[in-house]
Amino acid sequence: MNQSLTFLGIESSCDDTAAAVVRWSDAGAEVLSSVVEGQAALHAPFGGVVPEIAARAHAERLDHAVEAALAQAGVPLAGLDGIAVTAGPGLIGGLLSGQMLARGLSAATGVPLISVNHLAGHALTPRLTDGIGFPYLMLLVSGGHCQFLAVEGPDQFRRLGSTIDDAPGEAFDKIAKLLALPQPGGPHVEREAALGDPKRFAFPRPLLDRPGCDLSFSGLKTAVLRARDEVIAQNGGLTVQDRRDLCAGFQAAVADVLAEKTRRALAAFPAPVLAVAGGVAANVVLRERLQVAAAQAGARFLAPPLRLCTDNGAMIAWAGIERHRAALPPEGGMAARSRWPLDESAAPLIGHGRRGAKA
Ligand code: KG4
Ligand code: ZN
Predict the structure, then answer these.
(1) Matching fold, domains 4-131+307-325 and 136-306
(2) How far is residue 58's CA from residue 8's CA, in Å, rounded to a whole number?
(3) How many CB atoms are located within 10 Å of the residue 240 CB?
């Protein structure tokens, strides 16, 4: 008998209002539609995501995103087998907006509601895009998160290491700010770095001297700030080349640290696949380094298309399908959780990244 499941996914945990329809069948998984309405322009004047503005924008836009996702997929509400919605981690106001809508749709149609963990959505994406089996190693590198996860089942995640302070995307954004580059800073820093000398400034490689897979990026940011100020004090300002060299030195340090920690994570958990997710995975230099680290460990390197690596509704729909297929109970109930580690048994992190950070 042919089996098929069609799920709507709703995502509103940070500053992307997203909805998508995903279908799984014996033939594989298919993203029928994926609508992402970003809010970057609303938050730009404030230099970061403002939770109240985000919550209001989600409340205003979610209806439209869901309607558009269903229309593009050509699936009526009654044709859905499930509605999956992010219950955390993230900003409470946005999470509640998504949950209220999902609950209303479920109550009106009788379609089952499944609350899912946003990080599970990221972590399970390689199964949606490439149909890989368990286990695999996931490196999540975004504006709000940095962690190595041993993924052993739809509900089995073991955190092997994570940042103890800033996320790498956050560090890229802060470096861009220090050097008067536009936000989000990652792509701009990468572009400048390509024209710079990565050896001119000797920046630290934080936590490489300690065993394990934990990471830290805040000291690196301070080192770049100091180097910038020294150059300004000596020369009265920054030249174009100074800026390029600072970017190159910073990016080389991030890449070194992530490559080495990836090697250690693969040694601790020799998985057949290393998969990445998150906006920082767009960085070409970093990708190349991770690819080499994976190859050295005999692992396949997998980077899903960027639109499914960054926040989106398809990963939430997929996480719902995974839970449904595995007959796992719906997570989280109606509670929105601002903090929600995938691996509840892992030690709490010392730092949690910026307020209003994306997951
Ligand atoms: O995954 P994402 O879109 O949002 C979340 O944080 O969930 O990631 C955004 C982050 C930003 O901090 C941005 O600066 C960073 O990803 N980023 C990059 C690059 N493109 C985006 N960082 C380094 N190099 C890039 N090419
Ligand atoms: Zn995310």
Answers:
(1) yes
(2) 17
(3) 10
**What is the number of the ligand closest to the CA of 184?**
1
Ligand nearest to the CA of 90: 2
- Report helix, strand and coil shares of the chain as percent, to nearest 5: 45, 20, 35
60 CB neighbour count, 10 Å cutoff: 12
- Chain center to CA of 44: 20
C-alpha of residue 310 to centroid of ligand 2, in Å: 6
Q: What is the 8-class DSSP label of residue 136?
A: E
Ligand 1 atom having least distance to the Cα of 277: 1
Q: Report residues whose beta carbon is within 6 angstroms of any ligand 1 atom.
A: 142-144, 169-170, 172-173, 184-187, 190, 278-280, 282-283, 310-311, 358-359
Q: Residue with the nearest Cα to atom 2 of ligand 1?
A: 279
Ligand 1 atom closest to Cα of residue 284: 26
Residues near ion ligand 2 (CB < 5 Å) are 311, 359
Give pLDDT tens digits for 71-122. 999 999 999 999 999 999 998 999 999 999 999 999 999 999 999 999 999 9
pLDDT tens, position by position, 181-233: 988 899 999 999 999 999 999 999 999 998 999 999 999 999 999 999 999 99
**Closest ligand to Cα 181:** 1
Note the CATH number of domain 4-131+307-325.
Answer: 3.30.420.40
Domain 136-306: give its CATH code. 3.30.420.40
**Residue ranges in the chain modelled with pLDDT below 70:** 1-2, 330-334, 347-359
Domain definitions of the chain by residue range = 4-131+307-325, 136-306
Percent of the chain with pLDDT over 70: 94
